[in-house]
């Protein structure tokens, strides 16, 4: 099955996607991961993407579409992809539909995590990542373990774009750009809304109900 998970930046899409990948053996297609991989290459495209991301804006459709097709066309991932952070606008949704048809695939379910701006502000500004193991914590909701040999204060880092101004801009951009996308999938009767402010395990339990129904 192919699944899309929606939610504003900081809604917990990545966390839930990881659970889904583990349970259903799917490949997580995260636009954030694809972009960061390009940034780490320090290519001309990576430098351009860095500037765009740090400003709180979104990268162009052309850039994203090419990165997305490279995954969809891979036979190892056929009908076992969860799209995390894509499509972001109607044009991308339409392009994704064409790409999936081109490679004889389709979307089976669209999950939408609904989270308020106030919660998003705390999640993004409080987010820290362990530079050793990559685990993600939050100074408001999910503190790192005390006396940890790995995830201690000295190795916890913030992403450059995790600040209040960028958080607000990204949330507003998300709300504006994704409404047409949600309408697109709503007409296909694919959307399931989930309260993204619940506990992580509660959210996953609800998601699991929808995914299990597809497999049944």
Task: Describe what you observe in this structure.
The chain starts with a strand and ends with a helix. It has a five-stranded parallel sheet, sandwiched between helices. A three-stranded antiparallel sheet has the order 6-5-7. It has two domains: 3-115 and 165-215, 3-Layer(aba) Sandwich (Rossmann fold), CATH 3.40.50; 127-161, no CATH class. With 216 residues, the chain is an alpha/beta fold. The model has no long low-confidence stretch (mean pLDDT 88). It has helices at 13-24, 31-40, 44-54, 61-72, 90-102, 117-125, 164-186, 200-215; strands spanning 3-6, 27-30, 81-84, 109-114, 127-130, 136-138, 156-157, 191-195.
Compose a concise summary of this entry.
The chain is α/β, with parallel strands linked by helices and 216 residues long. The chain is built from eight helices and eight strands. The chain has two domains: 3-115 and 165-215, P-loop containing nucleotide triphosphate hydrolases (Rossmann fold, 3-Layer(aba) Sandwich), CATH 3.40.50.300; 127-161, no CATH class.
Number of strands: 8
Mean pLDDT: 88
**How many domains, in number, for the residues?**
2
What gross morphology would you assign? globular
Strand content: 5-15%
The helix content, as a percent range, equals 40-55%
Annotated CATH topology of the largest domain: Rossmann fold
Uncertain stretches = none
Q: Write down the Rg.
A: 17 Å
How far apart the termini lie comes to: 12 Å
Number of helices: 8
Spell out the CATH superfamily of the largest domain: P-loop containing nucleotide triphosphate hydrolases
Largest sheet: 5 strands, parallel
The SSE order reads: EHEHHHEHEHEEEHEH
CATH architecture name of the largest domain: 3-Layer(aba) Sandwich
């Amino acid at each position: 099955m192919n699944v899309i998970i929606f939610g504003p930046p900081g809604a917990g899409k990545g966390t839930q996607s990881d659970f889904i990948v583990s349970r259903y053996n799917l490949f997580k297609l995260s636009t954030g991961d694809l972009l960061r991989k390009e940034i780490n290459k320090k290519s001309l495209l990576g430098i351009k993407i860095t500037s765009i991301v740090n400003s709180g804006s979104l990268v162009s459709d052309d850039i994203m579409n090419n990165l997305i097709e490279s995954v969809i066309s891979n036979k190892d991932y056929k009908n076992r992809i969860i799209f995390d952070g894509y499509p972001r606008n109607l044009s991308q949704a339409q392009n994704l539909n064409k790409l999936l048809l081109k490679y004889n695939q389709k979307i089976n379910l669209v999950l939408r995590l609904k989270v308020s701006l106030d919660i998003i502000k705390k999640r993004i500004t409080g987010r820290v990542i362990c530079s050793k193991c990559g685990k993600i914590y939050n100074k408001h909701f999910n503190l790192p373990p005390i006396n940890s040999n790995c995830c201690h204060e000295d190795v916890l880092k913030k992403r450059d774009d995790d600040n209040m101004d960028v958080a607000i801009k990204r949330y507003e951009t998300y709300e504006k750009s994704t409404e047409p996308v949600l309408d697109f999938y709503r007409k296909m009767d694919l959307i399931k809304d989930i309260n993204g402010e619940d506990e992580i395990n509660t959210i996953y339990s609800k998601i699991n109900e929808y995914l299990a129904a597809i497999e049944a």
